[in-house]
Write a structure and sequence with these properties.
The complex is a heterodimer of chains A (about 600) and B (about 190). By secondary structure, chain A is α/β, with parallel strands linked by helices. Chain A is built from 18 helices and 28 strands. The longest helix of chain A is centred in the first third of the chain and has 17 residues, at about 80-100. Chain A is globular. By secondary structure, chain B is α+β, with helices and mostly antiparallel strands. Chain B has two domains: about 35-95; about 105-190, Glutaredoxin. In chain B, about 35% of the residues lie in helices and about 10% in strands. Chain B has a four-stranded mixed sheet, covered by helices on one side. Chain B is elongated and about 55 Å long. The chains are: A alpha/beta (about 600), B alpha+beta (about 190).
């Protein structure tokens, strides 16, 4: 809202102060007066559809919705009267009579449903209107969540979230009148949607059980779960998470609205993949005996590792670390570093160039909100950093931001771009077009990722920087945003860990006969190290590999010793995101089986 | 009085070709892979409205005129050309009674159900027409010739109850006249 001049009004007899441009609901909320709402959701545009927030304004015979009526100076507002209560009850009764709201068989029963809470609040125990009992679809074709039209109250919170937060507008209202219904794309099933990113923001916004997480449904009400606020470690953005747990297992994961980075939004990876996808955990330390990995005790496993290290020749010990480890683990690594001749972290393709001069893009998320032109070079945010992609989509669709994409691979963002081209040496004509598109841009921002770090990419990067600095129409070019791919790679690089991209070359350069791999909770268990067949052959040949990982993988097949490490929701400590913010990790669960946090394992082994 | 009354003036014609901007920044559309020339016509409409999102309804009008109904493929084509979300295009299409997402007959029989026609028995007119054609309201005859629909008011109150078949208007069709009307007039369209 625009910060306007101060206004004063009386709400329920209480003198209240607000700013011009605020709605009655906002002023009341700021002054501690609660008005019931259903279709209103903070951070979304007001809809005024449910009529729960109706109030009386003195001098007006009609009741008005507080969420979409601007507060005016000197007005007197009543938020609670017999008339209003009667109308709100009526609204609720009509909602209940329209569709099939059978609470006992709803996953949101017992405390998670706004509609049910409102009905309890108004003491509704019977409905005066005939039920319509429409036969509506329950769409559970989506991978992570379902849509039960029977429980929908058409508040459009999901529609507005999908449009204004994720920016894809997969959902809308179709048909008319009593036949109104939420539609996915051209009225297809959720599972067949071509635009849905499965970010799950619609589910988080749904006030009833119409949209529900399949993995969380009927696992007990969230209101009775424990909540832990932590940070997502899937990518370098570092979105805030609220993890709901019960009996030491995850019930659901939502975005943390208080997170300064993501403000409650998440992408598919952080919201679902970490806990819904089945990944075989390593639960006990294992030692290879007679060609088979046999579960053993921590003491035995640690002893075996120590024996292996002392047996290996000095100068030939190497350690490879996942860039997902915490800052605390990095400090432990620095302490034990002397015991190893080479320590590297296995980063994503071409990412080592980003890490050689680690640069944090301070306040990058804010710059994405400020920019009126964006140039995306060699980054795939819709694949890697979903929340950044959402910001870009919203910027293009809602603020008319100009978008130029230069990428080697296509992505769904291309559909939003004014120009989308591969990264190759580009001709003059092309640059003229870029100049044309960015002609009126005043605050352009350059976002570049790992794939920009090629010879051609860097040339283009320089060229773009020149073009943008020279033509900003009196504005200024915002500081470029460096978008790495791996979670904590920049902080690790800043801490002195050498980025390793090409494992086979790295292993070939130095004589290695003992390799310790900290794969941590890499989703693939670190198996990408074995991408090239001769790396696998080499590791099998030295037969002296220790793997510290959370998930079973091809890598554990070549290990002499396997040590179980904790996953994202079992870790304490901190990670540093691409803006340079140190974000806290708080354990939501006790480690499964005998798994331990990475730094504790390292300290035990190298004590 | 069952003769065609007046030539209609409300038919939707694609905008004239002269309005197509050349050398503008409007994106050039590739030819539709099906080779269907109607898409080329639709492109002209899109270019005429400069791909402005606010022109969606006009574009849908033109598309329905060209294709007879708005198939998912056509909606997808329009959405991608105008850079509009699919769900938004679907929402607008299904909001308006005029747009159809299912194939319709060659001729639309539109029964006016505005106030005057209603008073003069348009409900019975719909029923009797349905009986004669062997279809219900909103359906299409098996031979694909006629669809039976209603409209709130076609602005021919003096002729109540009035119906339109394609672009022709027929007035003062009291329910009793329907069987004879069908026998006599519908043949013209076969």
């Amino acid at each position: 809202m625009i910060a306007g001049k101060e206004i004063s009004l009386t709400i329920d007899g209480k003198p209240c102060k607000g700013a011009l441009g605020q709605t009655i609901l906002q002023v009341a909320g700021d002054n501690g007066i609660e008005i019931p709402t259903l279709c209103y959701l903070k951070n979304l545009s007001p809809w005024g559809g449910c009529r729960m927030c109706i109030v009386e304004v003195q001098g007006s015979p009609k009741v008005v919705p507080a969420c979409s009526t601007p507060a005016t100076d000197g007005s007197t507002v009543i938020t609670n009267s017999e008339r209003l209560q009667g109308l709100r009850r009526l609204t609720l009764e009509l909602l209940f009579s329209e569709r099939n709201h059978f609470c006992p068989i709803c996953p949101m029963n017992k405390g998670d449903c706004d509609l049910q809470q409102q009905a309890y609040g108004f003491g509704i125990d019977s409905i005066r209107y005939p039920y319509l009992y429409p036969a509506l679809l329950v769409d559970v074709s989506g991978k992570y969540f379902g849509l039960d039209h029977n429980r929908c109250i058409l508040c459009t919170r999901c529609v507005r979230t999908c449009d204004e937060i994720e920016g894809v507008h997969t959902l809308d209202i179709g048909n008319r009148g009593v036949k109104n219904q939420i539609v996915v794309d051209l009225n297809v099933m959720f599972g067949a949607s071509t635009t849905c990113t499965s970010c799950g923001a619609c589910v988080a916004a749904c006030p009833t059980g119409a949209l529900f997480d399949k993995s969380a449904a009927f696992h007990g009400p969230l209101s009775r779960c424990q909540q832990v606020r932590t940070t997502c470690t899937e990518c370098p953005v570092g979105c805030g998470l609220v993890v709901y747990t019960k009996d030491n297992r995850i019930v659901d994961v939502f975005g943390d609205a208080e997170s300064t980075v993501s403000r409650g939004h998440l992408c598919r990876r952080g919201r679902y993949e970490t806990w819904v996808e089945p990944r075989p955990r390593i639960l006990r330390p294992m030692v290879r005996r007679d060609g088979h990995l046999v579960p053993t005790s921590w003491g035995d496993a640690v002893h075996t590792v120590k024996t292996l290290i002392s047996a290996s020749n000095h100068g030939q010990n190497a350690m490879l670390v996942s860039p997902r480890v915490t800052n605390e683990t990095m400090r432990t690594l620095q302490k034990i570093g002397l015991r190893f001749d080479h320590i590297g972290m296995f980063v994503a393709d071409k990412e080592s160039a980003l890490c050689t001069s680690p640069e944090f893009s301070t306040d990058a998320m804010k710059r994405l909100d400020d920019a009126d032109g964006m140039i995306l070079l060699g980054a795939q945010p819709s694949r890697e950093q979903g929340v950044v992609a959402a910001k870009i989509r919203v910027a293009v669709r809602k603020r008319g931001v100009k978008l130029v994409i230069l990428n080697s691979r296509r992505s769904d963002l291309d559909a939003y771009a004014d120009i989308s081209a591969p990264i190759v040496t580009l001709e003059r004509k092309f640059w003229n077009r870029v100049g044309e598109v960015l002609g009126n841009v005043k605050r352009p921002v350059l976002i570049y990722g790992a794939a920009a770090m090629t010879a051609v990419g860097v040339t283009i990067l320089d060229r773009l920087t020149k073009v943008l600095t020279s033509q900003c129409n009196g504005g200024e070019m915002l500081a470029p945003i460096q978008l790495p791919t791996s979670t904590n790679s920049l902080a690790l690089a800043a801490g002195g860990v050498e980025p390793v991209e090409d494992i086979s070359t790295w292993l070939g350069v130095q004589p290695v006969n003992f390799l310790y791999v900290v794969a941590s909770d890499e989703p693939d268990g670190g198996a990408r190290l074995l991408k090239e067949p001769h790396v696998r052959a080499f590791l099998e040949q030295i037969d002296c590999v220790v793997v510290q990982a959370s998930y079973e993988s091809a890598l554990t097949d070549v290990a002499r010793v396997v040590l179980p490490s904790a996953i994202w929701c079992e870790k304490n400590g901190s990670v540093t995101n691409f803006e340079g913010r140190a974000l806290p990790l708080r354990a939501a669960l006790a480690p499964s089986g005998e798994a331990r946090e990475d730094n504790i394992v390292l300290e035990t082994v190298f004590a | 009085m069952s003769e065609p009354v007046a030539a209609p003036t409300n038919s939707i014609t694609p905008p004239p070709q002269t309005h197509v901007r050349s050398g503008s920044t409007a994106p050039l559309l590739p030819h539709h892979p099906s080779g269907d020339q109607r898409f080329a016509s639709l492109d002209q409409t899109l270019q005429h409205y400069k791909f402005e999102p606010t022109a969606l309804i006009q574009v849908l009008h033109a598309a329905q005129h060209l294709f007879g109904y708005l198939a998912p493929d056509v909606l997808r084509y329009i959405a991608s050309a105008m850079k509009l979300p699919l769900a938004h295009v679907y929402g607008v299409t299904t909001f308006y009674n005029f747009f159809s997402i299912v194939p319709r007959g060659k001729y639309q029989i539109m029964v006016c159900t505005g106030t005057t026609c209603h008073v003069r028995g348009s409900a019975t007119v719909v029923e009797r027409l349905g009986q004669q054609l062997g279809i219900k309201h909103g359906e299409t005859t098996k031979d694909g010739l006629f669809s039976l629909q209603t409209a709130r008011c076609i602005g021919a109150c003096a002729l109540a109850p009035a119906i339109t078949i394609g672009d022709d208007v027929y007035g003062k069709l009291s329910p009793d006249k329907i069987p004879r009307f069908c026998q006599k007039e519908l043949k013209k369209y076969v």
